């Protein structure tokens, strides 16, 4: 998926088991869709908490935050509760959505607990990708740049 592409629709369960469809979320406004390797890891926790800490800025811009990883529903729920995350975390257990978005890693990195690349898609309410943020080391750049891209 690249800037200017239409985001692929999907449906996955969130941390509470509720099915979420991207097209339905987009009906409520732009979406910051961030893929992260694994819950409870230091980098992913820093990134997720930064998205949480910018809740007021996202609300002011009318942008919804959605996290997605290969973790199962129970692990997503536990991580959400531990860090008081206030947005949906989706369970892409089989990696099908990560594959569709081009962020699934090869089998070697899956085995060492890094099944998904850290990439964020800024998706306008029209479903078109406005920006793609890919950084494995700067955890704050994802939330910051997606706000810039969708607040235009």
Identify the overall geometry.
globular
CATH architecture: 3-Layer(aba) Sandwich
The helix/strand class is alpha/beta
Query: Could you tell me the strand content as a percent range?
Result: 15-25%
- The number of helical runs is 7
CATH superfamily: Glutaredoxin
Helix content: 25-40%
What's the N-to-C terminus distance?
21 Å
Q: How would a crystallographer describe the biggest sheet?
A: 5 strands, mixed
Q: List segments where confidence is low: pLDDT < 50 over at least 5 consecutive residues.
A: 108-112
The total domain count is 1
CATH level 1 name: Alpha Beta
As for the CATH topology, it is Glutaredoxin
Strand order of the largest sheet: 5-4-3-6-7
The ordered H/E elements are EEHEHHEHEHHEEH
Q: What is the tally of beta strands?
A: 7
Rounded radius of gyration (Å): 14 Å
Q: Can you give the mean pLDDT?
A: 90
EC number: 1.11.1.24
Active site: 44 (cysteine sulfenic acid (-soh) intermediate)
Pfam families: AhpC-TSA
Protein name: thioredoxin-dependent peroxiredoxin
């Amino acid at each position: 998926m690249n800037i200017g592409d239409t985001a692929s629709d999907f449906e996955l369960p969130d941390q509470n088991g509720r099915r979420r469809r991207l097209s339905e979320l987009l009906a409520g406004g732009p979406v910051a869709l961030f893929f992260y390797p694994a819950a409870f890891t230091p980098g992913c926790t820093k990134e997720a908490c930064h998205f949480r800490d910018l809740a007021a800025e996202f609300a002011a811009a009318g942008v919804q935050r959605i996290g997605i990883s290969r973790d199962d529903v129970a692990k997503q729920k536990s991580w959400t509760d531990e860090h008081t995350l206030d947005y949906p975390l989706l369970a892409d257990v089989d990696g099908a959505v990560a594959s569709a978005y081009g962020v699934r890693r090869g089998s070697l990195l899956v085995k060492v607990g890094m099944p998904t690349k850290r990439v964020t898609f800024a998706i306008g309410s029209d479903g078109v990708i406005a920006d793609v943020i890919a950084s494995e080391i700067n955890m704050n750049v994802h939330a910051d740049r997606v706000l810039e891209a969708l607040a235009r």
